[in-house]
Amino acid sequence: MTQQYWERLLSYQSTQTIQKRLDNIYQHLHINNSNQLSYDNCYRFVYFLKHGENFFMQANQSPHAIQPMLLFYGLSQLIKACLLILDPEYPSSSTVLSHGVSSRKRKKQHYLFLNDEVKVQRNGLFPHIATKLYNIKHLEIEKYSMDLLLRQIPEMNEVYQFHLEKELFLKINSSQHEFVITEDISNHFHISSKRLAEILCENYAFEHLPNTKDSVVTINKNSVFKYNLNPFLYCLEDDCYYLPSTKDAFLNLPEILVHYLLLYNLSMISRYETEWWYDLLLTAPNNDYPFILRYMEIAKKKIPFYIINFLEDML
């Protein structure tokens, strides 16, 4: 399945075609000198994609010990290609060149990965991506725990169930244009289906569509892309959508940004916390081992999926 996404990306590795597509978009965005910018950026775009793909291909052939670094830098390259579509001047200043997030440099005694946090910086690639690609100018919170981030990825549900005996996601019925909030779902939150639908529409700009059945309320997807649906979380493995089972896990953060934060922290751990990292990989002393390894396998599949969907929607 993953190979299919990389094969689809081949269509975006023609500078002739990409130059025309970028020029059309820049004109639509009323950007001056669109022709010259599209010519300059078509080569950068293709090189970013190729470089990102090479990082991912190498990650598939490398030991777990260095996979976080390869995946993080591969994701960064792929995202830079996406940025060029909506931000032709990238990087317009040195403030967007840093990672845009930071992590605790020294791990405390009895450190657990799920309890670790990353902090979002005011400047850097992460806030720049949030603003340019998703129009998120002010993030809800500035610190994100690894547990909260992993709870945005439905494919992690099995790991949580087995190791922590937690059911983290509620499956949502959906069609091409609608999500259906039934009483079974709303009862979990101790409110009516109508009230839950209203809350979701108020917080996530969905259109509420009343249904003839009292027990079912539908929500119009409103042309929101798969990769940017919140709080509806997409599971690639079963092609279904889920809601978090707890209110504290409702996080208005596109999943590609969730992967950025997780892989940033894992890459920092693998580089600077060598003793802890190899102790984890060689002895598997606690639940961090299956959580991290399962996550990295998911990231290898979902990141190229989201990237190709973004490019196909935009170009």
Topology record:
Elements: H1 2-9, H2 15-28, H3 34-60, H4 67-86, E1 101-103, E2 117-120, H5 125-134, E3 143-145, H6 146-150, H7 157-164, E4 169-174, E5 178-182, H8 183-188, H9 193-204, E6 207-209, E7 216-220, E8 233-235, E9 240-244, H10 255-272, H11 274-283, H12 288-314
Antiparallel strand pairs: 1-2, 2-3, 4-5, 4-9, 5-7, 6-7, 8-9
Question: Can you put this structure into words, describing what you see?
Answer:
- There is one protein chain.
- This protein has two domains: 213 residues, no CATH class; 93 residues, no CATH class.
- Helices cover 52% and strands 12% of the residues.
- A six-stranded antiparallel beta sheet has the order 6-7-5-4-9-8.
- A hairpin with a 3-residue loop joins strand 4 and strand 5.
- Helix 10 packs across helix 11.
- The longest helix is centred in the N-terminal third of the chain and has 27 residues.
- The two termini are 22 Å apart.
- The mean pLDDT is 90.
